[in-house]
Each structure stands twice: as C-alpha cells, then as structure tokens.
Amino acid sequence: DQVIEESWPVVRDAEEFHDALLSLGWVPCERMPDWDQWVPVLSAAGRLVTVWRGDRRLGWAAAEFRHVVQLLFPGEQIDPEHGVAVPAESLEREEAFDRIVLGWMESIGPTTAAELSQTLHLSEQEVQGTFLRLEAQGHVLRGCFRPGQAIEHSTLNIENSAAAIAASPEWCHRRLLARIHRLTIGRLRKEIEPVSAAEFMRFLFQWQHASPGARLHGEVGLLEVAKQLGGFEAAASAWESHILRVRLAKYAPEWLDRLCLSGAVMWGRLTPPPRLMQELSPLPGRRVVPTRVAPVSVFAREDAVALLAAAGEGMPHMDINARLGASAQAVRRGLQERGASFFSEMLHVTRLLASEVEDGLWELVAAGLVTADGFDNLRALIDPRRRRAEGRGRSCRPRHVGGRWSLLRPAESCQLSAVSSVESVARQLLHRYGVVFRDLLARESVVSSWRDLLVCYRRMESRGEIRGGRFVSGFTGEQFALPEALEALRALKKRPGTQQEIKISAADPLNLAGVILPGPRIAAVPSNFVVFRDGMVIRTVTGRETTDRQVPSVIEVGQVRG
User: Fold this and answer.
1) For residue 369, which of 413, 415, 434 has the smallest C-alpha distance?
2) What are residue 265's DSSP bridge partners?
3) How many CB atoms within 10 Å of residue 70?
4) Number of CB atoms found within 10 A of residue 340's CB
C-alpha cells in the first residue's frame, strides 16, 4: 500500500494533471473522478483529448497521445476531432498497448490482466499479450504478490499453487517489486525512516559544507563546491561574498581565478532572460538590462555541455540582436567572427571605446551569451569603482584583466541528447541535495520537467544506484536519495540539535524558507539574509527590517505539508 501510494501521480493543478496523463498514457474517468476539475483548463489549451463511447465519456488522454488512443479505441469518438498532428513514426497497435500498459504498471502495484483490462476498458486477451511482451523485455515480473492470494494459494500444495499462479498470475513492475520486497523483509526499515523538514535542513547544512565544522579548504575544496552547486543560478555579486565564503575556510579569490584560468571551472548565465524568450516586439525599452543581481552559475567545465543543453532548451532560434544594444551587437558579432578574444582585440575589431565594449560585454553576460576564461573578468564588470579606475587595495586592480572573452554557446558546440542531458541534471541534483523530491526544486532554474527527472530516477533506482522511498516527512510524491546521503542522514538524526546560529544570504541555494520550511519565501537577493538555528528559521533580514520568527515544534514542522 505504501509503494502504491508513493508511485501514483500526485495531481494538485492542471500542470501536474498533464504530467500524469503523459505518464499513464490515458486515464478512465471513473478511475480518478477528482481530476475532472482540471479538464476544462487543459481542453481550452488544446492539451487534452476526451474519448467517448456513444453518450458515455470513457476517459482522457494528453493531446500528444491522440494517435495512441486512436489505435486503442478505433471505433470510438475522440473529442476534439482535430488536434496535435500524428507523429511521423509508424505505430502498431501492439506498440500502443505496450506504452499504455507500461505507463500504468510504473504507477500501480501488483495487478492481473483481468483487473487492468477492466480498468482501462481494453481486451483482457490483448492486455495479457502485452504483459508477456513486457516480461520478455524485462519490465514486469509475474507471480503471487498480494497477501490475499498468497493466503489462498498457501492452502494448496506446491504443484496446485504453481498451477493456480500460472492460470491467473499477478504482474508487477520490477522496480516497484524490488521496493515492495525491501519494505516487506524490513531489512532497511530504519534506514528509510523519514525525518522532519528541520532535520533535513540540518543535514543540508552539513551536506553542502555550510556548517562551521564542515567547511572545505583550498582549491580542491573550491572545485568540490563548484561541482556540487553547478547549475544553480544566483546573483553575480553574491557568489564570492556570500556563497563561497560560507562553504570554504579562509576563502581567497585567487583560488577561483586559478581554477577558471586552468580550465577546471567556468561561469556564465545558463537560462536565458525572459525578455529573450518573448517574441520580437517593435516596442522600445525591451533590452536586457545588466545589474549586480543578474543570475550567474559557477560550475565545473566538464559539466558545461550537459548544463547548457538542459538549460538552453528554450533558447530562441530567432535573431536576438533586436533585444541587444548597439555595443552588445558589435561585441557579439566580433566574437562570432574571430572566436575567443582578449579585450584589446575586441577594441580593435569593434572600433568602440573601452567603456562601450565593457557595456556590451556586461549586457551579453546578463543575457547568457558570453563568458570569460577568468572570474576576475566578471569582477571587473560588477564593480563600478574598478570600471572607473578608482579605489585602493583589491578594488584598484587593473580595470581590464587578462583572459579571453568567448561565446557561452558557440554554434559548433557539442550537443547532447535529451535523455543524456536530463540524466546529467538528475545526477547533479542528487549531488547537490543528497535527497531529491519535487517540492525541493522550486528554486532550480535548469529543471524544466519533474516528470522527465522522475523517469530518470526510477531507471537509476532499478539499476541499484540510488534509493527510492519516503525520507522527508510532510511532502507528497516520490523521493530519491544517494546511499551515502541516507547514511549521513541517519547518523545526523541520532545526534542532538545545536543552538548555534547559521546566517546565510537569501541568494544561497540553502534559502529554503517557504519552500520546505514554514513561513513566507524570502526574495533571493544578496542584501537579504536568513538566520537558522537547529534547522529552523529564527530571523530574517530584508533590507533594513529584521523579523524574528517563532520556531515551531518538530511535530508542527512535519505537519506543514501534511
């Protein structure tokens, strides 16, 4: 019952309803009557079709599965009659049955061909044939799994019991069966005992090295932090002053410079600004405006291809020069023609003033189009005193630093398949949080679809790489974790809490106030701060206003999402 509850799609709005339709293929009306409230929304958007049998409504399917439903119910009416075009691939009726049955078997527990055929309004004989094909492919297993039938068969001798199972077997997806087996034998029961949201926050401070005793050291530690936080976008001015300094003891900017210039780490904006995603408009004032809070990510260069492929899926194919200023257009054109260039080379190619080239580079950085060999290139653009050649000490460093500027997404860059990019992002999120579930990813900009991640995590679980189950209480849907994260979470649960306060910037990825913790969300700007004690928010600083919060009990924290 627990596995069935965790595997069944959670539908709280129209988008989650559409994800459920894509996962299941098609849903009979009587199976989930509560989902009926989201039908008008998706129908009006042309994302849902309805199957009718005479005057009776049978069920719904996503518009992308119209051609599959037509093969399943060739004599029934599908409303609307015209919708998404049938894909170019030729699909046989058997393949349509395989898609639908496999989608349901990934979301339900043990069942028989008779039960599933009755639920889906399909032929029992064809469903039985589909089970045999999926069994040959290794997706499902047959046997006797549910307690009622196990008791019934236990009264027979071995030969009669085997004959009964062969006559009317139960079928179960192998991934769900493996989880059912683990829960049944109880071998890992303590290991998956769920923790509260506050205890999970204590774990995250340790996991991301933000606790005072867990900080890393030197360039090796900085590289590990870059790999862990790769793909998370925060304000450009917050990375060194608020994010890296919290995780590294005695942080020195020279570490990041050397890692960038050596090719181990790079930086750039991964997700394009919303203004670049809009259709071209003749109205003025639609340019990208660079500021100190422009979102930027610091990541390992080896992860760059996967992160750019995942975050740049919506990058417009149209000419975006209309969204850029004249200086930015000239600089971008020069980089496209000459490739990576030093600042002096761009001055010669563009024939612009140094200040105009700086403005163009800053605009291209904010638009997610340009990066540089070193991180000091970004510091020079962020700091207005350096751009005016003012200040003393560190702020008096050269206005134009060494290192070449280059396009972040060159036209000849290597392209990854959608499956490879999703799997890379899935592994990145596991490395960042240890435990991953849907509500936790509210601030992740590179995550476009939880459904795609869910498919990837289920595949990784079936290979034994990660664990699936219920690890943090108070949240719906499936949760997945690294084995080493479960060990650390279980060890931390045995230790008593501490009264030590941890202060982080609201731009930090650990700012999960209002995401998994109770209370309002705090705007992710570097000037805002959140103070934690024992995994709970006790104080927030927004601008010049400080707000103290009453810390709820552990029981109340566990019931926040209940």
Assistant:
1) 413
2) 300
3) 17
4) 15
Cα–Cα distance between 189 and 153 in angstroms, integer? 28
Contact status, residue 446 vs residue 368, Cβ threshold 8 Å: no
Predicted local distance difference test score (pLDDT) of residue 285:
47
Q: For 517-546, give the DSSP string.
A: BSS------TT-EEEEETTEEEEEEETTEE
Q: Encoding tokens for residue 385?
A: 């005193």
Q: DSSP class of residue 269?
A: -
Q: What is the pLDDT of residue 558?
A: 44
Q: How many residues does the chain have?
A: 562
Question: Out of 103-112, 493-502, 517-526, 536-545, which region has the weakest mean confidence (pLDDT)?
Answer: 493-502
List, edge to edge, every strand of the sheet that includes 479-481: 435-436, 479-481, 467-469
Distances (CA, A) of 470 to 221, 423, 442, 467: 31, 22, 19, 10
| Percentage of the chain lying above the pLDDT 70 cut | 83
Going by their DSSP bridges, the two strands 479-481 and 529-533 should be labelled as: unpaired
DSSP state string for 469-483: E--BTT--S-EEE-H
Kindly state the tokens that stand for 562: 């209940």
| 452 phi, psi to nearest 5 deg | -65, -40
CA 420 to chain centre: 14
- Answer whether 457's CB lies under 8 Å from 480's CB: yes
Place of tokens 């650390």: 488
Question: Do residues 301 and 376 make contact, with C-beta atoms less than 8 angstroms apart?
Answer: no
What are the residue ranges of helices labelled H in 112-249? 113-120, 124-136, 147-154, 158-167, 174-185, 197-207, 218-229, 238, 245-247
Q: What is the DSSP letter of 88?
A: S
**Longest pairwise C-alpha distance within the chain:** 92
In 341-399, the DSSP E strands lie at 370-372
The reported pLDDT for the residue numbered 199 is 93
| pLDDT tens by residue, 437-454 | 999 999 998 887 899 999
Under a CB-based contact definition with an 8 Å cutoff, are residues 399 and 376 in contact? no
pLDDT, the chain, mean: 83
Burial label, 392 (beta-carbon count in 10 A; 0-12, 13-18, 19+): exposed
- Neighbouring CB atoms inside 10 A of 364's CB total 26
Q: Cβ(16)–Cβ(9) under 8 Å?
A: yes
Position 409 confidence tier, pLDDT thresholds 50, 70, 90: confident
Return the pLDDT at 187.
54
pLDDT tens-digit readout, 293-312: 899 999 999 999 889 888 86
- pLDDT score recorded for residue 550: 63
DSSP annotation of 439 reads: G
| Per-residue pLDDT at 314 exceeds 60 | no
* Best CA proximity match to 35, nearest among 53, 56, 62: 62
Answer yes or no: are the C-beta atoms of 133 and 98 closer than 8 Å.
yes
- pTM for this prediction: 0.75
**Backbone phi and psi for residue 208, each to the nearest 5 degrees, phi listed first:** -95, 15
